[in-house]
């Protein structure tokens, strides 16, 4: 059963023609009628059926205006790098001791960073970390000798772009409390990343079949992309 709040929101928005993000953000914010600071989210359907193989995108984008979320970051590294990780703002730091905690099911973090030499040990926990999307990956910047930069990037505001088996990508561009300008900055950074991924994967035709924008507890609108991706 729909709540009284939800019933007051506009109906049949998916029947409207697509609009550019500049016009839709004010509408999305107007529909953020809950008491908490709702996320503003994008949803893309990609053209992942190619002649040779399916497309599997997985990368990260540094959002210039951040995510509006506090990310708890854990670092598995050699003792010599502990200070660098701590100075960068890591919440949990350790070596074999932290690996053992993870092995026993203690995963009180949202992002895990690891140095290459410790990755050999950590890779054995694939069945634990993999399903939760926490396994460090060089492509995502979470396997690095430079733990200081890796932690800073994770804390500053990184968003992961990854499609599921049906070709869907969901990614947040910030919160209702963000200025329209900052939401658009984050949106443009995501489009630029998708544009690069299209080139890197030598995709024929359009990468994005459809796109929508919504808020956490709101309704979605068709989004007209400002780039031909």
Overview of the molecule:
With 229 residues, the protein is of the alpha/beta class. The protein has 2 domains: 101 residues, Ribulose 1,5 Bisphosphate Carboxylase/Oxygenase (2-Layer Sandwich), CATH 3.30.190.20; 85 residues, Ribosomal protein L1/L10, domain II (Rossmann fold). Helices cover 31% and strands 21% of the residues. It contains 8 helices and 9 strands. The strands form 3 sheets. It has a 4-stranded antiparallel β-sheet, covered by helices on one side. Strands 4-3-5 form a 3-stranded parallel β-sheet, with helices on both faces. A two-stranded antiparallel ribbon has the order 2-6. Strand 8 and strand 9 form a beta hairpin. Helix 2 crosses helix 8. The longest helix is centred in the last third of the chain and has 21 residues. It is globular, with a radius of gyration of 20 Å. It starts with a helix and ends in a 7-residue tail after the last strand.
CATH topology of the largest domain: Ribulose 1,5 Bisphosphate Carboxylase/Oxygenase
Q: Biggest sheet: strands side by side, in what order?
A: 7-1-8-9
Shape: globular
Structural class: alpha/beta
What is the CATH domain class of the largest domain? Answer: Alpha Beta
Q: How does CATH name the architecture of the largest domain? A: 2-Layer Sandwich
Order of helices and strands: HHEEEHEHEHHHEEHEE
For this structure, what is the CATH homologous superfamily of the largest domain?
Answer: Ribosomal protein L1/L10, rRNA-binding domain
Measured as a percent range, the helix fraction is 25-40%
Low-pLDDT segments, ≥5 res: none
Which band does the percent of strand residues land in?
Answer: 15-25%
What characterizes the major β-sheet?
A: 4 strands, antiparallel
Number of strands: 9
- What is the arithmetic mean of pLDDT? 91
User: How many separate structural domains?
Assistant: 2
By DSSP (H or I, 4+ residues per run), the number of helices equals 8
Q: What is the CA-CA span between the terminal residues? A: 38 Å
Radius of gyration: 20 Å
């Amino acid at each position: 059963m729909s709540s009284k709040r939800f019933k007051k929101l506009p109906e049949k928005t998916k029947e409207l023609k697509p609009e550019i993000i500049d016009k839709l953000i004010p509408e999305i914010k107007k529909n953020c009628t809950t008491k908490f600071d709702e996320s503003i989210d994008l949803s893309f359907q990609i053209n992942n059926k190619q002649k040779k193989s399916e497309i599997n995108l997985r990368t990260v984008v540094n959002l210039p205006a951040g995510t509006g979320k506090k990310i708890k970051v854990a670092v598995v590294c050699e003792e010599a790098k502990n200070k660098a990780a701590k100075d960068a703002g890591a919440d949990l730091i350790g070596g074999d001791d932290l690996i053992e905690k993870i092995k026993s099911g203690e995963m009180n973090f949202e992002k895990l960073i690891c140095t290459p030499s410790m990755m050999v040990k950590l890779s054995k926990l694939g069945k634990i970390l993999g399903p939760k999307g926490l396994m460090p990956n060089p492509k995502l910047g979470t396997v690095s000798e430079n733990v200081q930069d890796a932690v800073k990037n994770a804390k500053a505001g990184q968003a992961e772009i990854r499609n599921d088996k049906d070709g869907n990508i969901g990614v947040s561009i910030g919160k209702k409390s963000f200025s329209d300008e900052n939401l658009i900055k984050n949106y443009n950074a995501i489009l630029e990343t998708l544009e690069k991924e299209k080139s890197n994967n030598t995709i024929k035709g359009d990468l994005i079949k459809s796109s929508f924008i919504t808020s956490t507890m709101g309704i979605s609108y068709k989004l007209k992309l400002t780039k031909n991706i």
